């Protein structure tokens, strides 16, 4: 199995920093969000990853390219642990790139990955969603795929009113974690929710190119992956899987801050120090 990670969005909600730094490289302390997502794939048994970038995001390719001179400088300085950390950025997975020359939608971004994927199922992981779970969410979806051999869309119960920001699963019948999908309703009003299962940026896609070929561009001229998934749902060939794990909205400033704090608390090098600081800070607020 291979994985595809689209990184074509402009990141306007994080301006001005995204003028120079792609949102996918914004760090959680010292590790970019994109690296966390690649690690999730690797921990799920996937070692071949294709990253879809725009022409303006060549810096992502630079980040995941091996820097021999930096490695040698660190080794000469006796900073062997840092040298190993730099090398691991490239050694963790077999990472390749394809450029989406024009921003004409998520379905187009997926369509140009076919030479990499072929006719095989693959994982699609969106960079706006950082999901921490054990086992990793991608592994959970792969296990669900093994049961149905059809497209599986990761969902999670969302009880807040802001569920209207997401695509919401319309399931044939809620019976356990894995359910046949009738469709996906994009940003439904609260009085017309098909369920409380929000679709969160992780998919195992099977035969998706067949349905991408059938969709039309929207009024904005873009081709959206949700439209292709809707056609697949109508053919009764897509399922939702309610995964376990904590999801962070990395396209949102507060969600990004939550991820930085909560993942930092788990760090062995300064997690306990941060915990003491937060407690002391809370006593002064």
Task: Report on this structure.
This protein has 285 residues and is α/β, with parallel strands linked by helices. The protein is built from 11 helices and 13 strands. A hairpin with a 2-residue loop joins strand 2 (27-28) and strand 3. Helix 3 packs antiparallel against helix 4. The model has no long low-confidence stretch (mean pLDDT 93).
Q: Indicate the proportion of strand residues.
A: 15-25%
Order of helices and strands: EEEHEHHHEHHEEHEEEEHHEEHH
Computed CA radius of gyration, to the nearest angstrom: 20 Å
Describe the global form: globular
The main sheet comes to: 9 strands, mixed
Order of the strands making up the biggest sheet: 5-4-1-6-11-8-12-10-9
User: Total helix count?
Assistant: 11
Contiguous runs where pLDDT drops below 50 for at least 5 residues: none
Ends distance? 49 Å
- Class from helix and strand fractions: alpha/beta
Q: Could you tell me the number of beta strands?
A: 13
Chain-averaged pLDDT: 93
State the helicity in percent bands. 25-40%
